[in-house]
Each structure stands twice: as C-alpha cells, then as structure tokens.
Amino acid sequence: MIRHRIAFAIAACAVIAIGLVLHTAEGPVAAFVADSLYTVLVYLILRLVFARARRWMLAVVAFAFSALVEVLQLTGLPEQWGDAFAPARLLLGASFSAVDLASYAIGALAVWSVDNVVLRVLGARPKSAAPPAA
After folding, report:
1. For the packed helices 2-24 and 28-49, what is the interaxial angle rounded to 10 degrees?
2. How many C-beta atoms surround the C-beta of residue 30 within 10 A?
3. Digit-coded pLDDT (tens) for 108-120
4. Which residues, 6+ apart, have CB-to-CB distance to 19 below 8 Å?
5. Does pTM top 0.85 for this prediction?
6. DSSP string of 70-104, one letter each residue
7. Which of 7, 67, 130, 132 is 20 to 30 A from 33, comparing alpha carbons?
8. What angle do the packed helices 28-49 and 98-124 form, to 10 degrees?
9. CA-to-CA distance for 20 and 87, rounded, in angstroms?
10. What is the DSSP letter of 133?
11. Distance between CA 67 and CA 86 in Å, rounded?
C-alpha cells in the first residue's frame, strides 16, 4: 500500500509541475488542459489519502470540489483572496467560466479511466516470481 501512496504522491507532483508550465502557456487548449489537471490533482490527493475508497466516488468528489470552486468564483471572493495573496489565485481562480466545468468533468473521467487501466495492468502481473514446482 505504501508503494501506491508514493506513486500517487509522485503523480500529484508531476501534475503540479505540468499544470504550472501550462499556466504560463497561451491559448485555449493549454487553459483547458490546465483546468482538467486541476481536477486530476484533486483526485490524486484524494486517492493518496483515501487509498481504499471507490475510485468512481473519488472521481465524483474531485469533480464536485472543482465545480464548487468554480461556482464560488461567481461570488468574487476568490478574486479578492487572489488580490490579497497571489498563490490563492492559482488554487481558486478568479472568474467563472462554464467551459471550466466541462474541463473538470473530462479531467475526472480521464484520471478515473487511467487509474482503472493501470490497476488492471498491475493486477494482471504475477504477484511473485516463485520458481515452478519440481
């Protein structure tokens, strides 16, 4: 189990790095992928903390959390918090966009799918390399 948690922590760090690089890139595709990665990161953190939880439930919670943050932007509070503390803008955004909700849904579906495929592949591997019986 500890190896799984390490793998999720490494994946989360990689997602943060990729997201920060994409955050500096211009264009709608980079923005869409970066927004999708926000939900991927939330999923990975949830998976790290709740390793035995149902993966589909974690994907739903990751999407719901991301969508809640997006809807919170309608209040203007995240923008104010971002003005007061710049890193908050990276986590909470500043302005509402319905397109972001679609990117969060795609991010949740993608990370859930990849997680299931990886587990299937790992589950297909033999658990030990025991020598054949003589």
Report:
1. 160
2. 14
3. 999 999 999 988 8
4. 34, 37, 38, 41
5. no
6. HHHGGGTHHHHHHHHSHHHHHHH-SS--HHHHHHH
7. 7
8. 50
9. 12
10. P
11. 21
- Of the candidates 50, 35, 48, 54, the residue with the CA atom closest to the CA atom of residue 110: 35
Cα separation, 92 vs 54, in Å, equals 26
Side chain identity at 88, as an amino acid letter? A
Distances (CA, A) of 5 to 52, 93, 100: 11, 28, 28
Tokens of 66: 């991301």
Kindly state the tokens that stand for 71. Answer: 């809807």
Per residue in 4-31, pLDDT tens?
888 889 999 999 999 889 988 888 999 8
- Angle of helix 28-49 relative to helix 55-72, nearest 10 degrees, comes to 130
* pLDDT digit string, tens, across residues 74-91: 998 888 888 899 888 878
The type of residue at 66 is S
In angstroms, the CA 52 to CA 7 distance is 15
Cα–Cα distance for residue pair 28/129, rounded to 1 Å: 48
Look at residue 43 in the predicted model and tell me its pLDDT. 97
